[in-house]
Design goal:
heterodimer, A: alpha+beta, Aldehyde Oxidoreductase, domain 4, 7-stranded mixed β-sheet, 5-stranded mixed β-sheet, 29 strands, 28% helix, 22% strand, globular, B: alpha+beta, Ubiquitin-like (UB roll), 2 domains, 36% helix
Chain lengths: 748, 148
């Protein structure tokens, strides 16, 4: 753990009595019996506070913390829990400075509001950013709360604050043997101003940060007690199911059997929505059966409809189009003169790679529970990764002011990028309209089939590489062009003369010392709705690059591990990491070799630099009946510094599973403008029998800034597997998923 | 029709072919059992029917009248289920948690039938999907529960 920027002080050494640099704007009204405001901060109030220009996100103790009479802590997290362990991390970080055991925290997701804009001035849970963007602020927040409690205790005990210290959950006056549990002084503390300058605990004194604190929600998640969005209920609600236009942009026309469907059991009403029809009923099964019975005539999309899906769209044809493009595109990264160096190279190799569309496939289907209240507010219980953005969008749909939209952000049954604000891909706008029409609360659930139809996709892309090697087989030039469209440009606006970084990340920003490099991008509009998928551009670009790297090594007759090591001669952090993964796997052996069970195996290696974290990955594979078996995956990961090693192990294992699933199995295929798979039967995801052993080594280099954890374990997996497969079979996989390729080779 | 769920009798008035999953969730308010795919692909909806792991999303309710149905809501009342839960906690199995009700039920059914399962038994019984990839932790927890 490296030192952070804030001043440190020993845990038992307190600043001199009296105020630190106190600010009146930190002064807050207090709720009785609690360090802070009531549990349900109304959205209107939060929004009204936004008008006060002085609010600095992450500083107002009251917006985050409520110490309850029993000294447990209710904490409102700016970030949403979806399996990545962020609630536990927040309890560790805040608890460390507040001096409260993390297991005494109850965490909920904060409402929209200016206090929680901790992600670069905005608020979202994604980009593997939650801990690294809020770490300093949350430590200071906990320390501020602790200082307020110390001040309150000093007044009550009538002793100088300098004589006080804390133990977990209480203030202690050692000289007199007196103590005050936090819960008893929380109300008095809440009346005090929030200090703006606090001292932080010494890293060497950390008890919880950096430790494998058990996750707070594991027991409830093991006993079915967690309520996800899909499980929420309110009095008087109707259940809703929809049938979408098979192609985006189509609108419902005639309903041939409307009267018949209206008479089905439990049906309340039938509704036309933009691009969909809906049935409200007294149970979801009845609503679903009814809406799927509806015989709908869908219109052709009107001319000019944004992102209308063409009737002749074929993902295969689109991929052929991408791969046929020979343009150099707009340069994103240029080092030296790649064109000249390629011209004078002893050997030049070329290859074109591609990767398909993917769905998120999170196991919880999207849903939205919506209720219009008599006071004109709209309440929504929804899955989301960005509460303020959803609040703003819902307000537009509802035709009301944003402060009248109350967002209850739910724990996510998986997300992987699914629950950002995407046009036409979230159920809540439909639920708002249905609830308005029915005059009752509505819970809308998308069936898995409707989810597969309207999920945003990881875009497809192609990448074209050329490399030049010198006479000794070392790479002297590399030119790469990615072809397609990225989600950042799609969702936040693309400038034609600039490259959307999400299309080249993982090919640009590589750490190898190749003296002449050019990375470019050629934009082609993607006909599908595209979005963020765990590790975004890295999810495919690292496969493209790191697999081509092994092609360079092979062409130059270099060992791929040794070549990587030699090109990292000036980068000790990466050399250390590469050596760490080799050590973890008991030494580099590329193979093929015969394992103890008689199978012939090989290993592949890959590196990645996603989300400010560095990763090195090795995979060991064999073939069984022509199908790839991945036995072991070793991952060394260096995020600089860490909060919870057990959570990191879990997140890496999870990223390995998803990365392997994408490498081996997953692709969305469009024919005639419609996706061919509408459920897991047509879109297999990694099953338990194909899960490899996963071995993780965390390397804390102390590098700043701190890196992310949720996504970085993924990008190295597809290339490590592909590189191993190439050794084993002699077949170079350049197109994912690998299930498309028939492998012939050893034991095959 | 009458259903016996977690030892209690429930009268439900519903179309006979309604999947058990939606009777549990919508009629009886027992939302611990999850909807994932509706096609018996993922196993998030797994419950015990007369001790057998059963995918409730494709089980017509009429077919389970007269049986004993156990859901995740009663897992702590079952000695084997309790061992499984403790192993799940000890191994920190869940991530997003959405599939874990079904995983715990599948593990409980396995250990009721095979208290000392082989690796093949575990692989054969623990086939539910987990998009978070908690498979190794699940297998470790099943082994631990068998030892407990």
């Amino acid at each position: 753990m490296n030192e952070m920027t804030t001043t440190e002080l020993g845990a038992t050494t307190l600043p001199a009595d009296g105020p630190l640099n106190l600010s009146r704007r930190g002064f807050l009204g207090a709720a009785a019996g609690a360090l802070i405001l009531g549990v349900n901060l109304p959205a209107g109030r939060a929004r009204a506070q936004a008008a006060v220009p002085a609010i600095v996100p992450g500083t107002r103790v009251s917006a985050f913390l409520e110490i309850r009479p029993d000294s447990t802590v209710l904490f409102r997290s700016a970030f949403i829990e979806g399996g990545q362990g962020i609630f536990t991390a927040m309890a560790q970080i805040v608890g460390e400075e507040l001096d409260v055991d993390p297991t005494h925290f109850v965490i909920e997701c904060a409402p929209p509001g200016p206090d929680y804009l901790l992600t670069g001035g905005g608020r979202f849970t994604g980009g593997s950013m939650s801990v690294r963007m809020s770490y300093d602020a949350m430590r200071k927040l906990g320390a501020s709360g602790r200082h307020m409690l110390l001040q309150a205790a000093a007044t009550q005990l009538n002793v100088p604050i300098s004589e006080l210290t804390t133990e977990p959950g209480r203030v202690v006056h050692a000289a007199s043997g007196q103590a005050r549990p936090y819960g008893e002084i929380a109300e008095a503390a809440a009346a005090l101003p929030v200090p703006t300058d606090v001292v932080l605990r010494k890293i060497s004194d950390f008890r919880w940060i950096g430790k494998s604190v058990p996750r707070l929600d594991v027991r409830d998640k093991s006993t079915g007690k967690i309520n996800y969005s899909i499980d929420q209920k309110v009095d008087g609600m109707l259940l809703a199911a929809v049938q979408h236009s098979p192609r985006l942009g189509g609108e419902p026309g005639a309903l041939a059997n409307e009267a018949e469907v209206k008479a089905m059991p439990g049906v309340h009403s039938i509704h036309r929505l933009p691009g969909a029809v809906a049935v409200l009923a007294d149970s979801w099964w009845r609503a679903r059966r009814a809406v799927e019975t509806l015989q709908v005539t869908w219109s052709e999309p009107a001319a000019g409809t944004a992102h209308a899906m063409p009737a002749d769209f074929s993902s295969e044809a689109h991929m052929e189009k991408l791969k046929a493009i020979s343009e150099e595109g707009v340069a994103f990264e240029t080092v030296g003169d790649a064109a000249a160096a390629l011209g004078s190279a002893a050997t030049v190799i070329e290859a074109t790679y591609d990767a398909p569309y993917l769905v998120h496939g999170q196991l919880e289907p999207p849903s939205a529970l919506v209720r219009w209240n008599e006071d004109g507010t709209l309440e929504m219980w929804i899955p989301n990764q960005a509460p303020d953005m959803f609040q703003g969008d819902a307000a537009k749909v509802a035709g009301i002011a944003p402060e009248k939209v109350i967002v209850h952000s739910q724990i996510l049954g998986g997300f992987f990028g699914r629950h950002f604000l995407y046009p036409a891909s979230n159920p809540y706008p439909q639920a708002i309209l249905l609830s308005k029409a029915a005059g009752r609360p509505v819970k809308l659930i998308w069936s898995r089939e409707e989810e597969f139809l309207r999920d945003t996709l990881r875009p497809m892309a192609a990448a074209r590489f050329r490399a030049g090697l010198d006479a000794s087989g070392l790479p002297v030039a590399l030119s790469a062009v990615t072809i397609g469209e990225g989600p950042v440009g799609r969702l936040f606006g693309r400038q034609p003369d600039k490259v959307d970084g999400s299309t080249v990340e993982g090919i640009a920003g590589k750490v190898y010392a190749i003296p002449n490099r050019r990375v470019g991008q050629f934009h082609v509009d993607d006909p599908a709705m595209i979005g963020f998928w765990r590790s975004v551009g890295h999810s495919m670009n690292d496969f493209f690059y790191e697999t081509f790297f092994d092609e360079m090594a092979d062409a130059g007759k270099q060992d791929p591990f040794e070549l990587r090591l030699s090109l990292l001669a000036e980068s000790p952090r990466h050399r250390t990491l590469l050596q760490a993964v080799v050590d973890l796997s008991w030494g580099w052996k590329r193979g093929p070799f015969t394992a103890d069970d008689g199978t012939v195996r090989a290993r592949g290696i890959a590196m990645a630099s996603p989300f400010a974290t560095e990763v090195a990955t090795i995979a060991e594979v064999s073939l069984r009946d022509g199908e790839i078996v991945v036995h072991d995956v070793w991952v060394a990961i260096d995020p600089g510094s860490i909060v919870n090693p057990a959570v990191i192990d879990s997140q890496v294992a999870s990223a390995v599973a998803l990365g392997l699933s994408s490498a081996l199995l997953e692709q969305v295929v469009y024919v005639g403008g419609v996706p061919q798979a509408r459920n897991y039967d047509g879109y297999p995801i990694l099953p338990p029998e194909r899960m490899p052993r996963v071995h993780v080594r965390i390397v804390e280099s102390g590098a700043m800034p701190m890196g992310g954890i949720g996504e970085p374990g993924l990008p190295g997996v597809p290339p490590a597997v592909a590189n191993a497969v190439a050794v084993l079979t002699g077949q170079r996989v350049r197109s994912l998923p690998m299930s498309k390729t028939v492998f012939k080779g050893l034991n095959g | 029709m009458e259903l016996t769920i977690n030892g209690s009798k429930h009268q439900v008035d519903i179309e006979a072919d309604t999947p058990l999953l939606w009777v549990l969730r919508d009629e009886l308010g027992m939302t611990g059992t999850k909807y994932g795919c509706g096609l018996a692909q993922c196993g998030a909806c797994t419950v015990l029917v007369d001790g057998q792991a059963t995918r409730s999303c494709v089980t017509p309710v009429e077919s389970v009248a007269g049986t004993s149905i156990v859901t995740i809501e009663a897992i702590a009342d079952d000695p084997v289920g309790q061992k499984v839960v403790e192993a799940w906690v000890s191994n920190q199995v869940p991530q997003c948690g959405y599939c874990q009700s079904g995983q715990v039920m599948a593990a409980t059914a396995l250990l009721k039938q095979s208290p000392q399962p082989t690796e093949e038994d575990i692989a054969g019984a623990m086939v539910n999907l987990c998009r978070c990839g908690t498979y190794n932790a699940i297998a470790a927890a099943v082994r631990q529960a068998a030892q407990a």
